[in-house]
Prior knowledge:
The complex is a heterotrimer.
Chain A: E1 16-18, E2 21-27, H1 32-49, E3 53-60, H2 66-81, E4 85-89, H3 93-102, E5 110-112, H4 115-123
Parallel strand pairs in A: 2-3, 3-4, 4-5
Antiparallel strand pairs in A: 1-2
Helix pairs in contact in A: 1-2
Chain B: E1 9-13, H1 16-32, H2 37-56, E2 61-70, E3 73-82, H3 90-94, H4 107-113, E4 117-123, E5 127-135
Antiparallel strand pairs in B: 1-2, 2-3, 3-5, 4-5
Helix pairs in contact in B: 1-2, 2-4
Chain C: H1 2-10, H2 13-23, H3 25-33, H4 36-41, H5 46-65, H6 78-93, H7 98-106, H8 109-119, H9 126-169, E1 174-177, E2 180-186, H10 191-207, E3 212-219, H11 225-241, E4 244-248, H12 252-260, E5 269-271, H13 274-285
Parallel strand pairs in C: 2-3, 3-4, 4-5
Antiparallel strand pairs in C: 1-2
Amino acid sequence: MTDEFPHLGKGHVPVLRLGDVLLVTLQGDLHDSTAEQLQQDIGETIARTRATGVVIDISGVEVVDSFLGRVLAEIAAQARLLAARTVVAGMRPAVAITLVELGLTLPGLRTALSTEEAMQLLARPGPDPRPGGTRPGSA
Amino acid sequence: MRTAEGVEACLPIRSDMDLMWVRQHVRQAAARLGFGLVDRTKLVTAASELARNTLVHGGGGQMESARVTRGHLQGLRLAFSDRGPGIPDVDRTLSDGYTTGDGLGLGLGGARRLVHEFAIDSRPGAGTTVTVVSWALRPPHPREEM
Amino acid sequence: MPEHEAEGQHGSPTWEVRDFLRRRREQIAQRWADESLFRAVFTVSRDEAVEAGRAVVEALAEVAGTGRPENPAAAGFTTVREQLGRMGAARARAGLTPAQISVEVDALRPPAVDLLVADFPDDAPAGFVRECTNALTALMGTLRLVVMETALNEGEAMLDRQRLQMLEVATPVIRLWDGIVAVPLIGTLDSARSQVVMETLLEAVVTEQARFAILDITGVPTVDSLVAQHLMKTVQAARLMGAECIVSGIRPAIAQTIVHLGLDLGTVVTRAGLADALGYALGRLGAGIVNAAPRGAEPR
């Protein structure tokens, strides 16, 4: 388990491991390359630790533009290929309204109100790693 | 009524580090002009999209910001300009899903929905300037922080 | 023309006024602090009134320095515009009519002009003294304009604020259960109100940690495509936050409109009435009529 505390810093967002779940806390404004680095880190950590879930807490993020939105969607897609489910937790109302207006509804992304809810969601046996329930039980 | 202090600026857009400065400046300027939280978030996001557009498609450029007024309304005008290749077909670029670079193709069309006024001036070979204006229609909420 | 001879000695009248204002800033501010406009606004301390007066005098001096005392858009006013607006607005709130406020601002002129005249030596050319008084009078007239204009704008802004407050009052969020909130909408939905509804509901989702948000439109007479779009956006935004939004109370006439308009509410969960929506949400939370396993009852 990593005990580094997540900070806004250039370059690196720590990936915490809590049992089978990886927890990532994003804070403040993210540098593009930091976000891309994170995507790579998460992929590698899932492969190394056999984690079955990823929780990305974005309650401290004030702005999600299409770039960061795409990175979040890609992290989820990539995790899915590695048999892990991803939940994005704590999106602020203003951010959600803006994303919808932007046309970025991220249909492939699982969401939760808080990190705790995200953890509970992942603790439940997931019928399929695909959100939206379009194909229940296909896993 | 507030003064234009901290609102007028000209910022370079040369690297993705500059995108962070652009977002920070727009966030603070909009807060100063009394934008509500949602309108401010929309404007900062639009600025991020447009600045990235300037960087990726225009090969870099700059953003100028200024305070504008109309009657008792105050607003923020942001102009993103580059000397890049220009946009051959503006209408097509504005339609969702159109993209030439990295992204989901929501750049310009998406940014347009986040602001109140939107104009593009582009000449092939001479560069592109995208100017947007948003108005602080809602008085600032008392509970709001910077 | 004696005035022309005076030019060489005294400089232009507006500059003379500028120098006078700077020189006598303290005395002018002291006298203004006793005038009703300042007295009525700065009720707590006289020092505050004097301080405000100094700022206004300084602004006037700057405008005089531009040589155009009749320009209400002069940059010199920028620094005091907000303060002047507050003063005008405070007087308006106290029940004064615009004409009465105008008279109050005008009352600041005589003390300043008296000081100006007293400052001239007895042998000063009468023509030049008159020109300077005229310039100061023009400047004070401009100040009056600025106060009136700013106060009017403030008034409009206040109306906007009141309009918004009314919208917020008309949008109550009700906590129906642990993790379930509802907004019963009554009356016509326009774009501005839809925006307020969306923001209010989503804020409540966060504060109540509500996994379910019900938008009940039983009391909404008509739904046009714009309103339907807002409903869709609310549902999508709630989903991004980790909540599910249910639209209840779609009356047959509205259902018909939605079909006619060709609007796709396909991905939106709808229920006939508020009770049905609550039942659906409770079921999804794992809470039946007997709340055996209160899912979603986490500490808020």
